[in-house]
Structure formats: C-alpha cells, structure tokens
Amino acid sequence: MAPTLEKGSQVVVSKLGYGNYQYLGQQVLKSEMTAEVRRGDIVVFQYPQNPQSIWMKRVIGLAGDRVVYRNKTLYIKKACKQPTDNCSDYSVIEQSLVSQDENGLKILQEANEDSSYQILVNDNHMDLISHYFSQVGSRHGEWEIPQGHYFVMGDSRDNSSDSRYWGFLPEDNLIGKVILSW
C-alpha cells in the first residue's frame, strides 16, 4: 500500500458495522453488514482465495460500477442509483504528479469521488494484462462489479496483487476499514 502505508506501518481498523467479527483469527460472529463502504476507503478483508490470510487494499469500485484499467490509468462508469446521478459514461480518475525519480518511479495524487490519496507507479514496468482476471462478457482489463462485491487495488499499482488479478472482493470477506495509520 505504499506510499500511503509503508512496510511496518501500524493501523487502527474500525470493525463496527462490517458484520465479520474475529478474535485471534477465529470467527466469533457473522452478521449482516450495515457499514457504508465508499470509493477510496482502505479496507481490511479475508483474502478470497485464502480466507485465513488478512489483506488491506483500497476500494476503487462498488457493485454495479464498470472499471477499466489501461496504461496505468483508471476509468470508472459508476452505477446509477438515482436518476440524477452522473453515470452515463466513463470518467477518468484524476491523477496529478507529486514527484518522479530518474528511474521512472512516480508518486501521483489520485482523486476518486470525495477521496484523495497518493499512488506509486513505475513507467518502466509494463502492466501484466495477460495475467488479469478475465470476466465473462467483458474485454481484458475491463470489469463490471457484481452485486455484493467490490473492486480493490493496492496503492503501489505495479506491485499489488489485487482485483485486477484475482477478481472481486465479496462483501462477506470485509473485516473493517482503516481509520488511522502511523
């Protein structure tokens, strides 16, 4: 999750309303989720391919959204929930350069809805499109998020195993949201 969370960072996670309560790795209670998950939230979850493993990633898309990732740029077509929603076409997730080194490593400021955060990309690293999760009925590098699921990505985009590679995050796997880090 660099540059947002560096290796060794400590986090406080709010579990209230997520319905997936564990203690020392053991499931204590499972109930209906009442918390609102928003684009840009950093969530803690049970990795879908190995629920014993706990991961953290940033929520990029919500159920019903269409996500496209091409040339290190995100495009989102938000799901229409209200007739007044602006969801008619894809919008690019804005990125602005914060810093860049001589090796092509860039820190970019990204704005997704009300959330703004920094991501790390390497212009010299090719996207591994051939390894992307392939959704039936969608082109490679494009996904439509099913109900009860989320699309998550790491902030270190070229070094993250995330929804691009293993698919959608089921709502039942959510444990909580990061509310503080140091």
UniProtKB/TrEMBL annotation:
Catalytic activity entry: Cleavage of hydrophobic, N-terminal signal or leader sequences from secreted and periplasmic proteins
Domain Peptidase S26, first and last residues per copy: 1-181
UniProt-recorded name of the protein: Signal peptidase I
Pfam families per UniProt: Peptidase_S26
Topology term for the membrane: Multi-pass membrane protein
Enzyme class: hydrolase
Location within or outside the cell: Cell membrane; Membrane
Family to which the UniProt record says this protein belongs: Belongs to the peptidase S26 family.
UniProt feature coiled coil, ranges: none
EC assignment: 3.4.21.89
Keyword Hydrolase: yes
Parts of the chain that traverse the membrane: none
Keywords, ordered alphabetically: Cell membrane, Hydrolase, Membrane, Protease, Transmembrane, Transmembrane helix
Predominant cellular place of this UniProt entry's protein: membrane
